[in-house]
Amino acid sequence: MAFTLITAATLIGVLFQRTHFRYAQAGKAAGTAPAVPGATRPTYGRWLAGRLRALASGDAWKKIWKALVAWAAAHYPGWTTWIFAAFGASLVYLAASGLFFAVFIPRGMTGVVLLGHMAFGGLFAAALAALLLWRARAYAPGRTGSGTTFGLACPVFKNVSREALRAALFWAIAVFGFVLIVSALGSMLPVFVFGAQATFTAIHRYAALALVLCAIVFADVAFVPPPRA
C-alpha cells in the first residue's frame, strides 16, 4: 500500500510540475506575441484539456515520432540508433509491466509477463552499458552549457541550464539502472536468505520508480521544444 501511494503521488506530482511549467512557458511566449483583440489566456485546466485532446489525434503522435527520430539521429547516428532503440524499448516494457504489477498486483508477476520482464531486463542491462560507453563523455562535468532556464526541474533550482539538467538526469538514470540490475540479481540468487531477497525486491521497486521519474523529466527536457511566440 505504501509503495502504491508513493508511486501515485510522485507520478502525479512530476506530471503536474512538468505540464504546469509548460503552461507557464506558453504564457510567456504568448506575452511576447502580438496582442489579439478580445483574446484571454486559458486557465491551466482548459490548457491541459486542449493539450490532451491534441494528443488524441494521429497528427500529434506523428509529430512526436518525427521529433524523437530526429533527436535519435542527431545523438545516435548510424548503427548506434539500435542502442537508443534497445534502451527505450526495454525501459518502456520494464516500467509498464513492473510498476503495474507492483501497484495493482502485490503478489508479483507470473507467466509470460514475468518471462518478458526477465528478457527485457537483460536487454536493458546490455543497452545501459552500451549507452554509457557511447554517451558518457557528452555528459561529463564541464561539458554542460551556461545558459539558464527558469524552474526546469524544480522551482527551488531556478538557474539550471538545460544541458546541466540533462547531464544530471543522465547520470541519475545510470545510477538507478545499476541499482535495478544489482537488486534484481540479488533477489534471485539463492545465496541470500528470504529476508535479504525481500529487501532487494523493495529496493528494486523504488529504484525503478525513481528511474521512471527521471526518464519522464529527461524526455520532457530533451525532446519537447519550448513554445514559440
Would you give an account of this structure?
This protein has helices spanning 2-32, 44-55, 58-75, 81-104, 111-135, 162-188, 194-223. The chain is an all-alpha fold and 229 residues long. It has one domain (2-223): Up-down Bundle (Fumarate Reductase Cytochrome B subunit), CATH 1.20.950. Helix 1 (2-32) runs parallel beside helix 7 and helix 5 crosses helix 6 (162-188).
Q: Label the CATH architecture.
A: Up-down Bundle
The biggest beta sheet reads: none
Count up the domains. 1
Radius of gyration: 20 Å
Strand elements, count: 0
- Report the sheet-strand fraction: under 5%
Number of helices: 7
Q: Give average pLDDT, whole number.
A: 82
Assembly state: single chain
Q: SSE string, helix = H, strand = E?
A: HHHHHHH
Q: What coarse outline follows from CA principal-axis ratios? A: globular
Distance between the termini: 45 Å
Class from secondary-structure proportions = mainly alpha
Write down the CATH topology.
Fumarate Reductase Cytochrome B subunit
Instruction: List segments where confidence is low: pLDDT < 50 over at least 5 consecutive residues.
Output: none
Give the CATH class: Mainly Alpha
Summarize the amount of helix as a percent range: over 70%
